[in-house]
Design goal:
globular; about 325 residues; mainly alpha; about 0% strand
């Protein structure tokens, strides 16, 4: 059994798998860390030519192809999230920092346009202000799409290459070549999901499940956007209900994390006289922004862990 495990690891490494990915896959099959340590040590000591990858060997008493259960999924996702939190958080902050100046500029342009529109200054100034608002808004959309695609690619690289302990700059450097493909993938998936939701709702949910791993696959498997969508559907096929339940649990958890504090602060603000109510609303906004910065990277980690589990099952 030990020889079979070492042979599998040797072949998988020869096919481009990372050690961290293999450890996650094999732990899900029931292998203990001490067995994995010995097998990886043997592989490093004895180098042989790569052969065709074989199915992952099952640990003694194992052999199930069921998906990872909820406790294990959250535990592994949380461990990886905690391990890479600093890098993922800085990637998210970069995206926020890129949008903040444009957001401020947009507010100033809107205020200037409104100030001129109501006759305080010449009508031409109002038209100019409106033009500036449109230009700034278009720039914001373009910047938001690019930074979102680049940050998404960088986040997946930070997880994929976690064994190398790559930092923020290196994650962005590796993510830049995949940014155009990631951007196209985000646009295509968004259009499919929104189109399905607008038509009959249920197709939109189905598309969201089918293509939920597209952004992961664009980076990890280095596939074009459409091929990544097809690969995501291939992985999900046969496990749609299991994926739906696991994504639903995370969605509900997200809602609880955001809605409960916001609702509590809103009730407190409604019961508090001005100006204390204004401070409470401001405090609520700050809390929600902080939660967003902390929790949004967890979605990447959660999807990445699910993706690894599906690849363990289907290869």
């Amino acid at each position: 059994m030990a020889d079979q495990l070492a042979d599998y690891i040797r072949n998988a490494l020869g096919k481009g798998y990372q050690e961290a990915e293999l450890r996650t896959l094999l732990r899900a099959e029931g292998w203990k860390d001490q067995d994995l340590d010995r097998a990886f040590a043997e592989v490093r000591t004895i180098s042989t030519p790569a052969r065709t990858i074989i199915p992952a060997p099952a640990a003694s008493g194992s052999g199930s192809v069921d998906m990872i259960d909820f406790p294990a999924l959250f535990r592994r996702s949380f461990d990886l999230w905690l391990d890479r939190l600093a890098t993922l958080l800085c990637i998210r902050l970069f995206q926020f920092a890129m949008m903040l100046p444009l957001g401020i500029l947009l507010l100033v342009a809107i205020a200037a346009a409104g100030f001129s529109l109501f006759g305080v200054s010449h009508h031409g100034a109002a038209l100019l202000g409106g033009f500036v608002v449109i230009v700034v808004l278009l720039i914001m959309i373009v910047v938001a799409l690019i930074t979102s695609a680049w940050s998404s690619a960088a986040s997946v690289f930070a997880l994929k290459d976690s064994r190398e302990r790559i930092g923020v700059i290196e994650s962005f450097r590796r993510g830049w070549p995949r940014m155009p493909v990631m951007l196209l993938a985000i646009i295509l998936v968004t259009l499919c999901v929104l189109g399905g939701l607008l038509l009959f709702v249920v197709p939109g949910i189905i598309f969201a499940i089918w293509f939920s791993f597209t952004m992961i696959i664009v980076v990890v498997e280095n596939r074009p956007a459409v091929a990544a969508m097809s690969r995501s559907k291939e992985l999900v096929n046969g496990y749609s209900w299991e994926i739906f339940l696991r994504l639903l649990v995370l969605f509900i958890l997200t809602m609880v994390v955001f809605i409960v504090p916001a609702g509590f602060m809103s009730v407190a603000a409604a019961m508090t006289p001005f100006p204390a109510s204004l401070l409470l609303n401001l405090f609520s906004l700050i809390i929600q922004m902080a939660l967003s910065l902390l929790f949004s990277p967890f979605w990447y980690v959660y999807l990445y862990t699910l993706y690894l589990d599906l690849r363990r099952i289907k290869g």
